[in-house]
Amino acid sequence: MDYLAADEALLERMVRAVERVLDRLRRAAAALESGGVPYAVAGGNAVAAWVATIDEAAVRNTQDVDIIIRREDLPAAITAMEAAGFTYRHVAGIDKFLDGPEAKARDAVHVLFAGEKVREKYSEAVPGVDNPFVDKSVRVLPLESLVVMKLTSNRLKDQVHLQDMINVGLLDRTWLLRVPAELVPRLQQLLDMPAD
Questions:
Q1: Fewer beta carbons within 10 angstroms: which end of the chain, N or C?
Q2: How far apart are CA 90 and CA 95, in angstroms?
Q3: What's the confidence (pLDDT) of residue 17?
Q4: Which residue range is the domain that position 10 belongs to?
């Protein structure tokens, strides 16, 4: 077996995987912009955008794209996204745009609705799409809103994303006064963890 060739093929697949997610993000943002649909990027891509403002080497890749829109803008979003080659689906209570009719569920843009809870048990609703951080025409959730979303979800990957933001200095102990009281213990626990 030619290990050098195998290593090169593996690296190419890794690069393609990252590029596909970024391409999906750019195309979705451009489609929503052209359709006049207010939106904000959330999730791992929003974390990556904020972390990159401090240290590009600390950016973590993510496998999906999450966007926030207002529910009343869903019809306009469907029109704009389908014109850009995406396929709208509502499956098991989740709204998403597949990256083409034959795409897998992982090849999707996941939709979250501003002002609505992702899960009924969550203490906080999804933030609005007003006043996003704009970077090269991609609108990203403001940092404070992103932090509250990540603390609210509190899955392992959310904790890792918050730790990434702590490690580059985006979050510190002053944030304990900036998040809702019920989320303070979660942030405190992350701040108390030893740095990488």
A1: N
A2: 4
A3: 85
A4: 3-142
**Greater pLDDT, 2 or 33:** 33
Residue 195 to residue 77: CA distance in whole angstroms: 41
- Output Rg (C-alpha) for the chain, integer angstroms: 18
96 closest CA partner among 85, 107, 140:
107
Question: Does residue 195 belong to any structural domain of this protein?
Answer: no
pLDDT band of residue 2 (cuts 50, 70, 90) is low
CATH assignment at residue 75:
3.30.460
In angstroms, the CA 174 to CA 144 distance is 12
What digits encode the pLDDT tens for the residues 96-129?
A: 999 988 888 888 999 999 999 999 999 999 999 9
Residue 57, token pair as written in the block: 């080497």
Conformation bin of residue 166: beta by default, left when phi > 0, alpha when psi is -120 to 50: alpha
Angle at 159 between CA 103 and CA 89, to 5 degrees: 25
Beta carbons of 148 and 166 less than 8 angstroms apart: no
Q: What domain count does the chain have?
A: 1
**Both structure tokens of 152:** 């609210």
- 149 in any annotated domain: no
Between 131 and 150, the higher pLDDT residue: 150
Please indicate, yes or no, if residue 92 is contained in any of the structural domains: yes
Instruction: For residue 186, count other CB atoms closer than 10 A to its CB.
Output: 17
Count of beta carbons in the 10 Å neighbourhood of residue 174: 7
